[in-house]
Amino acid sequence: MQFNKEKVKFGLLISGGVLLLFALIFGVKMFFDFVGDPFRADEIYQQALADLNAQNYSNAYFQFSKVSYLSDLKPYAIYHRAECAKILNDYKSENKQYFLLFNIYPKNELSLRAKYLYATDIAESSPRLAQKYFEEIIRKNPDTDYALGAKYQLAVILNKKYEESSTSTLVERKEIENLLRDYLVGAPSGRWALKSAELWQNINSTIAPEDKNIIAETYFTYNMLGQAEEILNNTDLNITWEKKAKLALLKGEYGKAKALIETGLKQKSSKVKEETRRQIINRFLQTQKNKDKIVDDFFKATSKPNDIYLKMQRCKYTSNQNAAQVCYANILKYNELSNFTEDDLTELFMENVTNGQFSNAKRIGLHYLEKFPSTENTPIISYWMGKIYKTSSHRAEAEEYFKNVIINYPDSYYAFRSYLQLNDIKNSIITTIIEPKEVIFPYYGKTDAKIIKLVEYKDYEILSQIYEQDKFVQSWILYEKGDKSHAMCIARDAMQVLEPKPEKTDLRWRLVYPAFLYEDMKTYAKMAGNNAVLMLALTREESYFNPNAQSYVGAVGLMQLMPETAKEINRIRSLGMQSLDELKDSDTNMKLGNFYYNFLLNNLGQNNILSVASYNGGIGSINRWKEGLEYRDIDEFVEKIPYPETQNYVKKVFRTYWNYARIYM
């Protein structure tokens, strides 16, 4: 039998190809078994996340392990595995995942956290290795909360070595004290604050007075007044009088607080900062009725008879208005403007504005804006400088000031007032309708694809850790979880300190000023005859849209209605409320609140500023102020409202109204 050589060669070639194909398939399978299937990584991750949310921790732990190492989600899968292991009390597996994460993915956002958690977990069993990692965290990430936490953990490790060593030195003790001091200064109410205070006192029985102040601050934050008093006993009053006075105020010992403040004022050189001194005096004065007499006593006590701050307090609390004007005039006459702080200058400026002393006000305002071009008080100074120029017919200069307020402080009450001035709007209403937009993740379009995946998969735990320091993302997560009131407060505070302010189209504004109740509010505002946008703003400031809100004076619900007021409006307008319990029902509260506001509006000449003030301070107070205060226009009326709470309320409501208009128009 003869073989066809060509057929044999072809057969061998085919067989070899098949074997090679099988080898490739087997190799790919082995490779995928090792690194995971990258094509199904997202699907597997979502399934694992579903198991985690359903508290099927063992399943989730296994599923997360199958997420491919070729996927950008793998480091987050590793972190979730550590979470699951911790819940399952498998601490060995938990630490293994942390170690894996910060070694394989050192640049990942969760790497630092993983390293900190790993070092904390091994501190008892492997203190030397933990010390290495804590020192590394402090050195490489000094401005993070993890560095602060690492300082406490490192202090604990070093203290144990210090106690066990027979050759411990003062230098070693000082190193421990420095770590504890740094922690308490950085986090006086932190997780380890009380333990830091306790450890510090255990290792040193002669703590310096300055350091006792630091420890006392932690006790204040935890309302541990007995411990604060104990730590401050027998300390140099030159250093600790302010803390002792604060303690006396918290305990209601006002006579003792006054004596301590006077002791501080007598000192020619005090180690207490000027700002701190002012804060404690202000806090004390708020507790007293006879403020003018108290200020006179402070003047008698002070070693600085030319103390501008005390002079300003004397003017501020002089009962006679004419005497107060003379007092402020004398301060301006006999003191250089360069000696005033920004708060002093603002107060002096506004006194001259509201008393019609425009020439003096202009001089103070120009000095302020040159010395403090960008501060919390710059908008009010700039706005009123614009009004001063407008009053003297310098329209171009006035418009420049108004435009600067809108550009540099776009979300402020004075940006709103500037807009009204530029457009000659007299009635404080700029819109009756807005177009609300949904609250969404604040960085859509500004972050990478893996973050958007986490957003779409609702992986709030990982997002919370990645954006641990970003209050806007923390706000959004709370909003997504249904805690909208708390979410708004966090976003509000974050926007307050953000400089410069973002464009009005920035998604972060929607977290600060969400309009999710607008459609319902529009219905009830129309029914009562109100401006729906203004009512939305008022409701935001009243309750931050919490239907269960209740104030210390008994106001209830979204629009914070007093029960007696609600009963009366319900009776007069036959609105159908059967029980006061219904005030926590959103629809009932909005309906009654709108009809109450319209009652105020009708009785105050359709003036929305007076009506908003009345909603807070009462219509009787408003009518009394209208008759008793001297003012040229509504701006001056607002600045002269004698109740700080009501004055601030008016500014907050119209600031919010302005922001709803500019964000959603």
Describe the fold and architecture.
The protein is an all-alpha fold and 665 residues long. Among the domains are: 25 residues; 180 residues, Tetratricopeptide repeat domain (Serine Threonine Protein Phosphatase 5, Tetratricopeptide repeat); 64 residues, no CATH class; 147 residues, Lysozyme. The protein is built from 36 helices and no strands. Helix 13 packs parallel to helix 15, helix 20 packs antiparallel against helix 21 and helix 33 packs across helix 36. It starts with a helix and ends with a helix. About 2% of the residues have low confidence.
State the name of the first-level CATH class of the domain at 39-218.
Answer: Mainly Alpha
**Could you report the average pLDDT, rounded to the nearest whole number?**
93
Shape label = globular
Low-confidence stretches: 23-34
Characterize the largest beta sheet: strand count, sense, and whether it forms a barrel.
none
| CATH H-level superfamily title of the domain at 39-218 | Tetratricopeptide repeat domain
Q: In the CATH classification, which architecture of the domain at 39-218 applies? A: Alpha Horseshoe
Report the count of strand segments. 0
User: What structural class do helix, strand and pairing data support?
Assistant: mainly alpha
How far is it from the N-terminal to the C-terminal residue, by CA?
94 Å
CATH-defined fold name of the domain at 39-218: Serine Threonine Protein Phosphatase 5, Tetratricopeptide repeat
Q: Treating each run of at least 4 consecutive H or I residues as one helix, how many helices?
A: 36
The fraction of residues assigned to DSSP E strands is: under 5%
